[in-house]
Amino acid sequence: MMHQLPIAACLLVATLCAQDVPETPQLPKANSAEATALLDKALAKMQALGRGSFRANELQDSAMFRGKLPRGNDGTDTHGGWSQDLSWSHAGSHDLLQCGGRMLVKTDGGWKLRRKTLPSGHPLPFAIDPNLLFRGLSDVPKTERQVRHVEGGKVEGKNVAILSITIEGEVASDFIESGAVPGVMGIGPGFVLPGMNPGTPPERRVHLALFVDPAGGDLLRFAARIVEDNSNMMGGRHLVTVVTDGDQGEEVEDEPAPAAGAPAFKNGFPSRKPTKAESVMTYTVDFSKVGLADVPELDDKAKALLRLAN
Fold first, then answer.
1. How far apart are CA 167 and CA 64, in angstroms?
2. What's the rounded Cα separation, in Å, for the pair 306 and 102?
3. How far apart are CA 180 and CA 204, in angstroms?
4. Residues 275, 140: Cα–Cα separation, whole Å
5. Is residue 303 scored above 90 in pLDDT?
6. Most buried pick, 163, 282, 289, 296, via CB within 10 A?
7. Are 75 and 284 in contact (CB under 8 A)?
8. Sequence-ordered list of residues with C-beta below 8 angstroms from that of 16, at least 6 positions apart, any chain
9. Which residues, listed in sequence order, are joined to residue 90 by a DSSP beta bridge?
10. Distance (Å, whole) CA 100 – CA 267
11. What residues contact residue 300 under an 8 Å CB cut-off, 6+ apart?
12. Whether this model's pTM surpasses 0.70
């Protein structure tokens, strides 16, 4: 019977080790009251804490320029923080401040009001206003804010529930135009091609993915993907230049959109490639130091321009 002691000891060790392994958090089901409650809890918590830090990445994939721009574009990175309506960010070599609808850019002459361009003449990068984002998400009607898909994931090694939402039509347009997220890169003012109908608004749908700690309700990451149908740009026929070695390219007609159905999801977004007529904007924000971020020191000029009390 001597051989039974080692077996019993091994079983005891295995039992003790299993008790030390953290359990995978229980995920709510899609289209459930529990999923909606977790979403609402995360948004309410971010608004209540009212400050934090962020790192964001904006990636544009324009149908008009797909295949025509140099490859290797990793998008535009920004980082900064916010405290209620005041937010600050750094993009490239530029420092930005915004509060109450006013935007400041730091120049050699100090802070200056700007709305469209940097001192270099380049367009202003998108500067997130987290307070506006959380309020905009909360204002999406509950019928449209349905969590249609839930999957597990990780952010910085922490288990999260990825809550997926899709909004379309007027609700999607209102969310985009509010400035909560970047819009899809256009083709530039005054750029009109034969047959183009620039007055017809494009059809847009917005896929949202919120990476939430299911235990505490902390929102660790937010991601948005806007898919815009640009087929109206060329009278309903979108042409793409296909460049190959040794020729000048050829024009090909857009492929029809795939049949509607329940798509597979990856990292919170439907796994579907855009058609040749669809432009895509993907925006991802990681949040940290929520409720703890320190507000940067502002000089008197910045406070005056932003109409902040001294």
1. 24
2. 6
3. 15
4. 27
5. yes
6. 163
7. no
8. none
9. 79, 95
10. 33
11. 310
12. yes
Give CA torsion, residues 59, 64, 70, 75, to 10 deg. -10
**pLDDT, average across residues 291-305:** 94
pLDDT tens, residue by residue, 88-109: 999 888 899 999 889 999 988 8
What one-character-per-residue DSSP string does the chain give? -TTHHHHHHHHHHHHHHHHHSPPPPPPPPTTSHHHHHHHHHHHHHHHHH-EEEEEEEEEEE-TTTTTTSPS----EEEEEEEETTEEEEEETTEEEEEETTEEEEEETTEEEE-SSB-TTSPBPPP---HHHHHHHHHHS-TTT----EEEEEEETTEEEEEEEEEEEHHHHHHHHHTTSSPPPP---TT---TT--TTSPPEEEEEEEEEE-TTT--EEEEEEEEEEE-GGGGTT--EEEE--TTS--EEEEPPPPPPP----EETTEE--PPPTTEEEEEEEEEEESTTTPPPPP--HHHHHHTT---
Residue 277 tokens read as: 């007529």
54 vs 310: CA distance, rounded Å: 26
Any idea which residue has 């002459």 for tokens? 109
Q: Which string of DSSP letters, residue by residue, matches 119-170?
A: TTSPBPPP---HHHHHHHHHHS-TTT----EEEEEEETTEEEEEEEEEEEHH
